[in-house]
Amino acid sequence: MTDEFEKALHRALRPRANPGEDFAARVVAQLDSDAEPAEPAAPAARVERMRHAASRSRWFPVALAACLIAAIGFFQMRQHAREATRANQARAQLLQALSIASDNVNIVRATVAREEHPDS
User: Fold this and answer.
1) How far apart are the first and last CA of the chain?
2) 73 secondary structure, DSSP code
3) How far apart are CA 113 and CA 107, in angstroms?
């Protein structure tokens, strides 16, 4: 803060020995004129606001639980998709292995058949 500002602040806020005899009356009058009391809300309107706030506070845990269930479902679905992909890869590998084994069995069977019947 600048010195000039501080001096002005000290002058404005300096204590007064006697604020005057009518100080309390002036303060009360100022308060009455500045802040007129708002009319109290009708009981029905107040009850409606309370119901609205209560229903909002009841729906928050429900919404939170729904989001949690949706997140769990999403992760389960992803896990299932990964497992399905792995299962398809394993199936393809098994079919390839069976094809190779079948080819080898056919080669061996043909060799054995030739040795058993050399004249064919």
Assistant:
1) 115
2) H
3) 10
Q: How far apart are CA 113 and CA 120, in angstroms?
A: 9
pLDDT digit string (tens) for 56-108? Answer: 777 888 889 999 999 999 999 999 999 999 999 999 999 999 999 999 999 99
DSSP notation for 55-96: HHHHHHHHHHHHHHHHHHHHHHHHHHHHHHHHHHHHHHHHHH
Quick one: what percent of the chain has pLDDT higher than 70? 91
On whether the pTM is more than 0.85, the answer is no
Count CB neighbours of 103 within 10 A: 10
Amino acid at 44: A
What are the residues whose beta carbons fall under 8 Å from the beta carbon of 49, sequence distance 6 or more? 41
